[in-house]
Design goal:
By secondary structure, the protein is mostly beta strands. 10% of the residues lie in helices and 33% in strands. Residues 86-162 form the Lipoyl-binding domain.
């Protein structure tokens, strides 16, 4: 905190958080100069959770089952957070993800592909720099969670490798 009143600093930080939410931002950083050797630096970050769900079409039934009684209720579906998966490869930066070296080219990897540690999985463009994202371990690509040309946040899950 600065040499200013702590209540003023707290009010300032609350105002920044409200500004973050009101403008649908994920991060805001401010440095406030009060004078010689007196400043306040604040970084407000909103956690963004990306949830991806896959719905499979039901298989065709050979026999029609009787209708369930009216009192029966279906169990709620469990939504898996890909970022919590032990094989998740997460984004090391904010940028735009590209799954191929150039438009129309074959993707670096696809679902079912075997990758080796260090192999390029995709590219994230950040500030006009193309950053190759390497596989953190060897394994098989189970899921690709981003599409070509989509924006990604820091820590967002990109792929699942098992």
């Amino acid at each position: 905190m600065s040499k200013q009143s702590p209540e003023q600093d707290v009010d300032f930080i609350k105002a920044l958080a409200e500004l973050l939410n009101a403008n649908d931002l994920t991060e805001l950083s401010v440095k406030r100069e009060y004078g010689d050797d007196d400043s306040l630096e604040v970084r407000v970050v909103k956690q963004v959770n990306v949830v991806t769900t896959t719905v499979a079409a039901p298989a065709a039934a050979t026999a029609i089952a009787p209708a369930a009684p009216a009192a029966a209720t279906a169990a709620p579906a469990v939504v898996e957070d890909p970022a919590q998966h032990p094989g998740a490869v997460t984004s090391p930066m904010v940028g735009t993800a590209y799954i191929a070296a150039e438009p129309g080219a074959a993707p670096f990897v696809a679902v079912g592909a075997t990758v080796t540690e260090g192999q390029t999985l995709l590219i994230i463009e950040a500030m006009k720099t193309m950053n190759h994202i390497p596989a953190p371990k060897s394994g098989t690509v189970k899921r690709v969670l981003v599409s070509d040309g989509t924006p990604v946040e820091f820590g967002a899950p990109l792929m699942i490798i098992e």
